[in-house]
């Protein structure tokens, strides 16, 4: 069984804490990124998401949004919570970051995309 609640670290060194998942599958948390367009300004930022609850093998899909408090950007993550061959929980995600564009002509350069893999920081 893979459970989203708890502390996670990704391949970039970013940390996040996800709260208890409620009966609707919704959760919130705090994301502390290790990298940013303006790294000097980094601050922990809130996240809000949903996971699917009706998954027969307990490896749910999920999505969450991070509203960066120190920039005008927003990132959405979507992924799946897996149990790997060592019995460790791992989150395989794809993310999209939308940066602020000052004018419509700059829209084309305002989106970044990538993947992140998260591992649990400590057992609950
Ligand atoms: C910004 O620079 O405007 C906000 C911070 C963005 C951090 C990105 S989100 C996707 C990737 N994964 C991380 O853990 N951090 C970067």
Automatic annotation (TrEMBL):
MF terms (GO), sorted A to Z: biotin binding
Gene3D superfamilies: Avidin-like (2.40.128.30)
InterPro entries: Avidin (IPR005469), Avidin-like_sf (IPR036896), Avidin/str (IPR005468), Avidin/Streptavidin-rel (IPR051764)
Subcellular location: Secreted
SUPFAM superfamilies, per the entry: Avidin/streptavidin (SSF50876)
Chief location bin: secreted
GO cellular component labels: extracellular region
Pfam families (UniProt xref): Avidin
Designated name of the protein: Avidin
Natural source organism: Furnarius figulus
